[in-house]
Amino acid sequence: MSTTLLLSIAAISVILLLLLVIKAKVHPFVALLISSLFVAISTDIPAKQIMEVIMSGMGGLLGHIAIIIVLGAMLGAVIEASGGADSLAARFTHSLGIKRSVAALTLVAFILGLPVFFEVGFIIVVPLIYGFAKVARVSPLKYGLPMAGVMLLVHVSVPTHPGPAAAAGLLKADIGWVMMLGIAISVPAAIFGYYVARLMNRKNFHLSVEVLEQLQLADKEGKKKKNPPSQKPPGALLISSLIVIPVVLIMLGTLLTPWLPETGALHGFVALISTPAIALLIALLLAAWLLGFRRGWGREKLDTIINSAIPGAAGVLLVAGAGGAFGKVLVESGVGKALALLLENIHLPLIPAAFVLSLALRASQGSATVAIVTTCGLLTSAVAELHGIQLVLVALSACFGALGLSHVNDAGFWVVTRYLGLSVADGLRTWTVLTTVMGLAGFAIVWLCWTII
């Protein structure tokens, strides 16, 4: 099948998906499956393999995020029901004010994103986003949009994560320099993204009914207290500790396991407790004991609170999984390879070529990591004469390209928009635009560095 036809099918599939969701009001899960089938049939994927590809894409993604999302939702429900999120938000907002608290939490998100995968980190901070939004009586977008943006920025640019680490390996760039320059360039890009998000938040976006119900406007909440008058809500320090525990455990795994003997028991123990799912499970068990049983909750109350988190998590999982299926079909159809070949034939200069190729691959199949790895794999022969910082800058150019154009075929798009209550159209206006301008900011700095050296 020709490159032009493949790219046309990919474009039509995205338009079809947007029409189904925005105009026809079809549930995103169903719309994603319909679009996946359209691509599979149009690109001549054998009929017997179509459902295998769809299930592989959905299963592969859910295998990675399902436990994390469910445990994260349960932890958030326990913290929320105890009054802890409101307590922490009230303390923080009183000390810093609303404007400073947004900037402070965005900085926290940047630091949190260094050792923690994007989806995991975002789910961990969701209770904070809602707690602060309720106390400040503002939309959760005011906190959630810049926080999610900087966490994804770090995820694609710092080689504590698989994409940039693979880029360094494929291009034979020094991973230490990739890390240092990645962080250095991400700081101004994050500041730029913070102000872009602030500009976006001047507009009042319509939020989903589920999110509005979760927010429970502060005036209503004053009439319906979750704790008896004689019982104070848990302290801000305790809530902060419960949120930080999974982050610290994950960081321990990142920092310690390379230095421990692989055959030793300590290596296995650290590797186990530092996996995101186990780290969240430990935090959930501690929260159940410290916020629940020690404060007089019975088993039935705790079960009710934990069970209340499952329906919301299930909705996020369904849509994210279908997004993974759509991305997998696009990859299997050959759209990504066709796009890479087209851009390679244009003969752009190396730094913009790495950025544009990665950006286009990200837009076509959804995964930032796949976009980075594919781009760097295609550029291995082109960088044969380069050395030192030049290789580092080519790798980072590909990384920042993979930050942009997060849209309907990206599972992260659905996680962020669902948790923040955005419609698909508003998600494209905010999250897609924010990730793209941050990617462009990072690329501009990389290109500037290239011209100097």
Structure description:
By secondary structure, the chain is an all-alpha fold. It is built from 21 helices and no strands. Mean pLDDT is 81; it is low at 217-230.
The end-to-end span amounts to 42 Å
How much helix, percentage-wise, in residues?
Answer: over 70%
Contiguous uncertain segments of 5+ residues? 217-230
Query: Given the structure, what is the number of helices?
Result: 21
Name the descriptors:
453 residues; mainly alpha; 79% helix; globular
Short description:
This is GntP family transporter. This protein has about 450 residues and is an all-alpha fold. The protein is built from 21 helices and no strands.
Protein topology:
Blueprint: H1 3-23, H2 28-42, H3 47-81, H4 84-113, H5 118-136, H6 141-157, H7 162-171, H8 175-200, H9 209-215, H10 218-223, H11 236-256, H12 265-273, H13 276-292, H14 299-308, H15 310-333, H16 335-344, H17 350-365, H18 368-379, H19 389-401, H20 411-420, H21 424-452
GO cellular component, one term: plasma membrane
Keywords: Membrane, Transmembrane, Transmembrane helix
Pfam families: GntP_permease
